Structure formats: C-alpha cells, structure tokens
Fold this sequence. Notes:
By secondary structure, the chain is an all-alpha fold. Helix content is 71%, strand content 2%.
Amino acid sequence: MKAFNQEEKFFIEASSDITKSNFKEKILYIIGAWKINNNNNYDYLIMREAFNWKRLAIRIVEYLNLENNLQNLIIEWLMTPHLYATFSEEKFKNLIGFEKYNAYLSYFYGITIERCLISYVEQELLKKQISYGNFVRYQPEEVYSKIYNLEYDDLMNEFLTEFSFDRIKLSEVEFENFTYWCFKKRIENSDPSKLASDTKKGTTFLYNLLESENRRINYKRNLNTKRKKNNLEVL
C-alpha cells in the first residue's frame, strides 16, 4: 500500500482534533470524506469493492501519532468486534456515507460472514465427528467442498492463477481477496434457497460470537469496577 499522498495528509491533519470523547465520530468522519479511486489498488478496498474501514482507520491513527493512552483506546475500539463501530446502523451509515456503507456491506457479507460460514460448517463437521466417537474424522478439505463443491487446494490454485499471487507470500489482505473471491464464486453457483441458508449459518455464527465477546467484555468491566471499589474501601 502506498503512503498517503499530500492531499490525504492535509485532510487528516485538518481533521485531527481527536480526543477521548470524540475519536469515534472524528475517525469515521475522516473515512466518510476520504476520496477513493476505484482504479487504484488499496489494501482497504478488497477487489476494488469490499471496504475494510478498520484497516484504513488504523493507518490514519498510526499517521496521526497520537498520545499513547488515546491511541491505545482507539486501537482497542477498532479491535473489538462490533457491527457498526458501536453506533446504530443509521448513524454509522451517516458518518461514513452511503457509498462507503455499501462497500462496507460488501466486506461484511463477502468476507466477515463468509468466514463465519466456513467456521460454522467446520463446527458442524466437528460435532458430527464427536457424535461418532471420533471414529469418523473429517478432513479440512471437506469444509470447502461442502460450501463450494471444490476442495481448498483447487480453489486456491484457481485463485492464484487468476490473480498471479505467490502462494508462499500471501498476506492477510490477499487472504481477504481469496475469501471475497470464494464468496462471489458461491453467489454465482448457488440457488437462492442455498444462498439464504448459507447466509443464515454465517450470521448465526457471527451473532453467537458477538454475544460471547460482549459477555467477556462486560465481565472484565464488572471485575475492574469491583477491584476499584475494593481498593477504595481499603483506603
């Protein structure tokens, strides 16, 4: 990914009055006003369609060189799983703009939900293996065969040939490209009922994951509050 150009740097610096109370809105405002040329290869725009806004946000935060506590707070916000940056869907859409919101939905369904679908099917196969007392062991290739009717190696080889990537040097961005490419392949080759079923499986897995993460965060928050209270009582 190329470094920011002078126009982008100027825009970030002009919008850099970021504080602990406004950082979410400010960063999403910068992203909403960000100019994206679909003819360029951005690491935050997968296959020139699917927008990973968090990757762009991290690059902006790193460029700003903020005070450590504020930067850590922002990174924690970005790394915590949430659908709309902790806002309502409507407010999130208004902050980043309609075009980028639609590109984010492409990322959400084409990469986030697609990976959740893969995890859901893997979970199903593991449960089946356990129910047979481990006498029947599933192979990792079965996950992809069940979803795409092709084994992982066949899919990956086709992807690498089409885009001329080096398998040894694949980065996270290129794996996102692979996932999104698989998603589009599945859309082309599935009937509507199977598409709906697969989307539901992926969405179910994601919401269970978010629910579990929220419980963990609330437990940690309550534990910290209890510790602070106990420390005050000791004092």
